[in-house]
Amino acid sequence: MTETLDPAVAQTVAADGADATKRLFIKTYGCQMNVYDSERMADVLRPLGYATTDSAESADFVILNTCHIRERAAEKVYSELGKLRELRDKRVAKGGNGMTIAVAGCVAQAEGEEIMRRQPAVDLVVGPQAYHQLPELLTRTARKRGERIGADFAPNEKFDALPVERGIEGYAAFLTVQEGCDKFCTFCVVPYTRGAEWSRPVKAILEEARALADHGVRELTLLGQNVNAFDGEGPDGKPYTLAKLAYALAEIPGIDRIRYTTSHPNDMSDDLIAAHADLKALMPYLHLPVQAGSDRILRLMNRKHGRQKYFELIDRIREARPDIAMAGDFIVAFPGETERDFEDTMDLVRRVNYAGAFSFIYSPRPGTPAATMGAQVPEEEAKARLKALQTLLFEQQTAFNQSLTGRVLPILFEKKGRHGHQAIGRSPYLQSVHVDDADHLMGQIVDVEIISGQQNSLAGRLIQKS
Questions:
Q1: Under 8 Å CB-to-CB from 64, ≥6 apart: which residues?
Q2: Dihedral of CA 452/444/325/315: which sign?
Q3: Are the C-beta atoms of residues 313 and 267 closer than 8 Å to each other?
Q4: Domains in the chain, start-ordered, CATH in brackets?
Q5: What is the pTM of this model?
Q6: Which residue, among 119, 37, 105, 42, has the nearest Cα to 69 in the 3D structure?
Q7: Which residues of the chain, if any, have pLDDT below 50?
Q8: Cis, peptide link before residue 262, omega less than 30° from 0
Q9: What is the Cα–Cα distance from 323 to 321, expressed in whole angstroms?
């Protein structure tokens, strides 16, 4: 769906395990992969007696799982660290227990030493490939000895060390299958914080997926920085494509829905497009970022594709799956972007007609080529362009949601709603769907008639059986 907030909007690992003696609070910034990583950090700390709580005030151990995509996200982390330091000092002053504070994720990878220098209250800094070392690092910290920074580990070491069993509740789950990026877009820090592209072995992915299915999960979202570049080793020793992996996952009893994000247009292979036509479990909602609609800006971004290639790709995908809905990412005010370049982006959006998108003003990231480019767009002009783009994207998203009125869609019910016996489910197109008298259907996929569509959600009603 169209996102108007900064990507550093925080999410919190849900509270559980009321009987544990130690409390863990994880605040997650940024992408779905960070959400997955936060869940796995909770998993590796659970054997140490940590149960998650929903507030820092009640926690013994606080982890900020960070995102380094935009400058404001990193600054918000430092602001949060200051608040945590004050909270810990107050607790100690009142004779209470202290609090261990850790910074994880991409900011930790990129700015580990700087974090420790700038905020001495931080006890641990753990990069995205090292969080499996948290128990050891935590023990060392408790003993006031050893290294406090863990950032340089290979992805396979991390995944080999993680438990297959996950402490997850609910009927939809993230599953990381690929990490890193080799594309080197000039605006992006991911190749520097997450490393080169690397795919997990298929056997390990299937084991984790089966364990999730055994716990009631019915929908999987496969995650990767360039997930459609997946080439993990298969059981026969040969590489699997993402399409072949999707077919294998769909054979697991209980797994009825499969999604994947985020993709790169250059890795949208023929077999993956064909899978959208052939594989019922593959949901008809595809997030395929383009970032800009101007060929000149795409070259400056080092995207390695042009607008015409993107249009042709969209046509092929829609030919294979006519009911598919497209989502995208857009950056406005990239260095050197002219009014003509911006109009090319608006034209692309009109032609593709998105069901949802994330859109942001360009934010320079230290160490990336774009950060040193001249011709930065003035702030007021950048804001005006973002407003115009988001107005168009909001209109398209609302129109798409309203177009579903009268249709019958299979809805996966996930949680109770706010009113009476209302329940909230998820459509094949990823919208939240509010349905009355459906709270007895948790975990089930049920046909629902859509009665209205708003900008961010749908309303539906159960179909009466005769």
A1: 26, 27, 29, 77, 80, 81, 101, 102, 103, 104, 105
A2: negative
A3: no
A4: 10-154 (3.40.50.12160), 157-403 (3.80.30.20), 408-462 (2.40.50.140)
A5: 0.72
A6: 105
A7: 1-20, 145-149, 151, 153, 466
A8: yes
A9: 6
Give the other-Cβ count within 10 Å of 223's Cβ. 23
**Do residues 359 and 2 lie in contact, with contact meaning Cβ atoms separated by under 8 Å?**
yes
The total number of residues shown for the chain amounts to: 466
Structure tokens at 65: 């799982």
Structure tokens at 290: 């383009």
Give 156-195 pLDDT, tens digit per residue.
555 555 555 666 778 999 898 998 888 989 988 788 777 7
Rounded to 10 degrees, the C-alpha dihedral 39/194/249/432 comes to 60
Q: Compute the distance between CA of residue 180 and CA of residue 192 in angstroms, rounded to an integer.
A: 9
Strands 432-435 and 325-332: unpaired
Q: What are phi and psi of 125, to 5 degrees?
A: -125, 125
pLDDT digits (tens, 9 = 90+) for 2-34: 333 333 333 434 334 334 478 999 998 877 778
Cα 124 from Cα 431, distance rounded (Å): 38
User: How far lies 274's CA from each of 107, 248, 385, in Å?
Assistant: 38, 15, 36
Distance, in Å, from the CA atom of 429 to the CA atom of 324, rounded to the nearest integer, reads 8
Amino acid at 212: L
